[in-house]
Structures are given as structure tokens and as C-alpha cells.
Amino acid sequence: MISVTPLSGKGSTVVASHPIVERALQQGHTLLTEIESKQVLHDLGIATTQGQLATSEDEAVRLAVAIGFPVVLKIASPDITHKSDVGGVQLNLHSAADVRYAYRAILQSTAVHAPDARVEGVAVQAMAKPGVEVIIGMSQDATFGPVLMFGLGGVLVEVLQDVAFRIVPLSQRDAAEMIRDLKGLPLLQGYRGTPAVDLDALERMLLTLSEFVAQTPAIQEIDLNPVYAYPEGALAVDARIILAAPAASA
Ligand code: ADP
Ligand code: MG
């Protein structure tokens, strides 16, 4: 059962203890798959390209038709954290034939590059329209406990390490400041004719995650990479939630 705890003063609710998290803890799993991670985020009110699991080519095609083309297929494995590194992501699939080809290509490639990985199937999801890439993360700091990270995605984060951190729980001011601290802020505010992105939506995402993390001590790490920021709204395109191993979460 989902237990929902009202948050004081905000008029919103957040899932304090999600059944997917509880089940994983009971089963001793520490890595939630992308499908599981996105389900948790969705239940928190964070927009995602939610995936559905296909365990056959036919099922992948059925799901793609139901979702609507173009779609994306990704390997679903509790043992694979960087899906594109093993050829586990196929983007922009426009037809049933594309989906069948991609399904086979993903399974073949992961069998070569990650032969020992347990494979649950292939996740089928909507292809997101392009946005400004940002990343949102959460990790446990030895001194400060849970901290949230916000940064610009792609080359900027890798080369310039243009990221900001704040300690959980975040105030609204923390969320606003960590976005505005970035050197690359002009890229979010509209640059050479590109429209400004919805900074409020990014702030809300940070605050929602902060509330969730504050209420769920078993969370070890969260990676939303990338999140696409749009003039209206923001969408988590990839998601990973890692739980503390039982011995460490006592
Ligand atoms: P990885 O495990 O390798 O990080 P991702 O799910 O992030 O896998 O996919 C790799 C890249 O493919 C992303 O950085 C993004 O650019 C693109 N991508 C993934 N999912 C989608 C989607 N649903 N719509 C559009 N682009 C996507
Ligand atoms: Mg990713």
C-alpha cells in the first residue's frame, strides 16, 4: 500500500514510503531499474518518459503502438547502470519494423558487452522532444548526509563541472539559488533566440526530491540524467535510484 503523508503548509502530498522501495529493501535489491525508478518519480508528481517492460518483440511492438511513435527502447536489467555503454539504448524508432530491429539489436549487443547481466526485457517509452539537458542528483555525504546536486547536462557538466550542491532538506530559496549559481545559467534563461526554460518546474523537481529523500533514509543515490528542461515543464528522461545495502542502512 502507498502511504501518503501530507506535507505541512504546501497543500501537496508526497509518497513517504513507496511500495517499490519497500519491496526492493525486503528482497535485498539495491538498484531500482529505470522502470521502477520512474514509477516512483511519477508517483511523486515528477514527469518522466515512463517505460513499460516488453519481454518479446511482439510485445515491444504492441507497447510502441499503444504509446505512439516515435519510441525509445532500452535494456531493462538490474545489473546494467550505463545502458548506452553496452548498446542498450535505441532512439527515435518510427515504425514496428524499427522496433523489431532495435529489440534484437539491444539484446544482441548487451549479450556481447554484458554477458553476465540478468535481463528482464526491454523498456519501451515515448521519445521525448529535445529540451535543454540538465542533471539532478542526490548522494549521501559523509559529513552532511543527503545532498542534492543540480547541473547542466552534456559537455558542460563533464568539462566545466558546472554543478551546485545543497544539503537536504532544501528550502525554496536553496532550490532557487542552486539553479541560479550555475555559470551556465544563461543557457537556461534563453540564449541567442532560444526560449527561457521553466525554472519554476526545475525548482519544484528539486524540492519534491528533497522531501522524498528526507522521508526515505534508505535512498543512497538518485541520478536523473538527463532531465529535459522546456519553456513549460521539465521531464526526467533517464532515472536511477540506488538504495543503501541492508548492512549500511541500519
Ligand atoms: P544511460 O543509461 O546510458 O545513461 P539513457 O536512458 O540516459 O541511458 O539514454 C542515453 C541517452 O539517450 C540520453 O542521454 C538521452 O540523450 C537519450 N534518451 C534516452 N531516453 C530518451 C527518450 N525517452 N527520449 C529522447 N531521448 C532519450
Ligand atoms: Mg542517462
Average pLDDT works out at: 91
Q: What small molecules are bound in this structure?
A: adenosine-5'-diphosphate, magnesium ion
Q: Architecture of the largest domain in CATH?
A: 2-Layer Sandwich
Can you tell me the residue ranges where pLDDT is under 50 for at least 5 consecutive residues? 1-15
What does the overall shape look like? globular
CATH C-level category of the largest domain: Alpha Beta
Largest sheet: 7 strands, antiparallel
CATH topology of the largest domain: D-amino Acid Aminotransferase, Chain A, domain 1
Give helix % range: 25-40%
Number of domains: 2
How big a fraction of the residues is strand? 25-35%
Which radius of gyration do the C-alpha atoms yield? 18 Å
Question: Please, how many helices?
Answer: 8
Structural class: alpha+beta
Can you put this structure into words, describing what you see?
The protein contains eight helices and 13 strands. The strands form three sheets. Strands 3, 8, 9, 10, 11, 12 and 13 form a seven-stranded antiparallel sheet that branches. A four-stranded antiparallel sheet has the order 4-7-5-6, covered by helices on one side. A two-stranded antiparallel ribbon has the order 1-2. The protein has about 250 residues and is of the alpha+beta class. Helix 6 packs across helix 8 (about 200-215). Helices cover about 35% and strands about 30% of the residues. It has helices at about 20-25, 35-45, 55-65, 95-115, 155-160, 170-180, 185-190, 200-215; strands at about 5, 15, 30, 50-55, 70-75, 90-95, 120-125, 130-140, 145-150, 165, 220-230, 235, 240-245. The protein has two domains: about 20-50 and about 130-245, 2-Layer Sandwich (D-amino Acid Aminotransferase, Chain A, domain 1), CATH 3.30.470.20; about 50-125, 2-Layer Sandwich (Dna Ligase, domain 1), CATH 3.30.1490.20. The site of magnesium ion (MG) has 2 residues, from loops.
